[in-house]
Each structure stands twice: as structure tokens, then as C-alpha cells.
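If it is no trouble, might I ask you for a protein's amino acid sequence along with its C-alpha cells?
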Amino acid sequence: MLTDHHRLDLVEQEDRALTDIAVSLEELIITWKRLLETSTPVQPTMDQTDQLVTRMITPLNQLVDAHIQIDIEMKHEGDRLLGRARLIALTLALILALVIAVTYVLATRHISHPLMTLATTADRIAHLDLSAAFEPSPTRDEVGILAASLTSMLSSLRERGSALMRKTKELEVFTYSIAHDLKGPLREIEGFSSLLEKHFAESGDLQVKHHIDIIRKPSLRLTHMIDALLKYSRLERQELPRTQFNLLEMINQLVCERPTSPDGITPTITVDLQFSHLYGEPASIRQAFTNLLDNAIKFSRHSPAPKIRISGRQVETGWMISICDNGIGFDPAQADKLFGLFERLHPAKEYEGTGVGLAIVKMVMEKHGGQVWAESYPGEGTTFYLAFPYSQEAISFQQSAKTPS
């Protein structure tokens, strides 16, 4: 390393060499002046000049050596400084990398991992898994406060869920009890009205027969409403295990089972499905199609030539099925009321029904993750659309079915 003392020695050596050179040059100039002033060559003067040149070369060599030594020392010093700078830069880079690594580990341990755990538990709770629990946070930072709030919310949710389950079971018991208690008197009314009808059948009294019909028809309608309501309630609580089944065969069977119209006018039913199989719960889907097909037959029976068309195709998002009739239709402004429980768009005297059939259709579609809607105008018929979405289970089932054994 080039120390201050060594640097001072080199500077002094350089100064001495410069001084000697200057003195030698001065003497050399004086000597040459004398030589020029003399008209004849003087041998001693030439010898003296040679001596002065020799004396000047020596300090010049010393000066060159001093500069070479200084250059060498400066190069070494520069290399040392560059190495020191590189070491400092590497040290700073390592320190920065260490800080980043420590920050990442701390952020992962205290922020990212707790948040991912909270998100996973929240997702389980969102899917109605109330057995999940939020891990308590040892810190009281924002994540800890969030975990404590979510734990309190989950506790409250569990309490309300338990209370709701108790109320639901109580309501189920109450519903079945009321239904049973109501159906008993209704059966008695229907039975006694049947006996009265047989008793007065020979008398031919039309007024008595009319009164008996007034008794029987409302009781039968109320019985059907109670049965439909119980069916709706069972479907609401029921889990629907899904599988792949032959929808085309099911629809053809339903078409064949439809009774002939009393007035002799039977609708023309056309089935045009571009696929045969559907993934879902067969019993509930059969009930939905039964309700829609009976609905189409009922509201198109006054048409001169009633026609019903059932069509379906596969689209990008799933299966699309439509049931179209040329019946009386309805006002599009009332479309929101169409699938409500006990909602009716037409008087019960004109078109029989319980007001539960389309509500069951809507529930079936919701349980399958699909949608149902209707398009219609008065006097132009009605088209019901059923959209069954693809699911991962359905795709896996189809792929396994296509794989050769």
C-alpha cells in the first residue's frame, strides 16, 4: 500500500532530480555560451559539456524511475481501491438480499400465511361448513384483529345456524302436523260429499248436485295444494345426488303418459333433442318436466290445433332445453310473478292448478345450479327455457363415459 511516508520520499526524489536537471541545464547553457563566444574550439570546454550532459542524464533517469515507481504504486493503489469498492458493493448487495429475504419470511409468516389460512377457512364457511375454525393469531396487528373479528362472527353464525336449524325442524314438524290435520277433515268432506252425490244421484236434483260440487271441488283443490306444498317442502330440504341419465327416453315416456283431453283435442307434441343424456338428479328433473309439460297442455287446450315443441341443444356453457306451446300466453310484465309460490296469473276457475308447479321447477333448476325463465306475449304462446350448466363432475363423467374400456 502506498503510505504517506513513501509518497513523500518519491516526491522528494522527484524534486531533487528536477533540481539537479535544472542546475545541469543552467551550467550547460553557460558552457555553450562560452563556447560560442570563443572563436577557436576549446577542448576543456567540450569535456566540461560532456560532463554536464552526463550529470543531467543521471537525474533524468532518476526522474523517470521516480515517475515509473509512482505509476506502479498508483496502479496498485487503484487496484486496491477497486477491489475495496467491489467488496463494499458485494457486501451491500448481500445485506440488501438478506433484508429482502428476512422481509419476505416475516411477511409470509405474519401476513401472507395467516391471510391464506383465514381465506381458506372463510371459503369453507361460505360452503356451509360451520365446523371450520379460525386459528387464533398470537399478534394484535391488523391480521390478529381480523382473525378475532372473524372468530366472533363465526361464533355468532353458529349460534344463529343452530337456532335456525331448531326452528326449521320445528317448522317441518308443524308443517306435517298441519298438513295431516287438514287432510283428515278434507278426506271426510270428500267422502261424505261422495256419499251425498250417490244418495241424490237418482233424484236428479241439479241444485243439490251443484251444491255437492261446490263442496267437493274446493276440498279436492285444497288437498292438491297441501300435497304440492309438502312436495315443495321435501324438495327444498332434499340433497340431490347427480348422475348421467337418458333425458330423451324420459321425455318420450312423459309424452306417452299424458292423458287424452276430455274434449278430444290432443296436442301435437314434437321432441327434438340434439343430445340424449343429461347430468343431474333424474327424479327432480322428471318432476320439473312433468310440471312444464302439463302446464303447456293446460294453457294450450283452447287453441284450435294445440302444438307443443320440446327442443334442446348443447351450448358453450351447458345444456339448453326449451318447451314451447301455442297457448294463451301471458303479459311479459308479469314474468317475475310466474315462479312465485302460490302465484297465479289466471283465475283458478278457468285453469286449475295449485300455484306450486312452477315454483318447484325453479327450485329444481337452482339446486342444479341452472336457470329457468319464460318468454311470452298474450295470445302468442309461451316458451320456457331451462339452462343446465356444465360442472366439473359432469365433464369428468362424460370423459370417463367416452373412454373405451
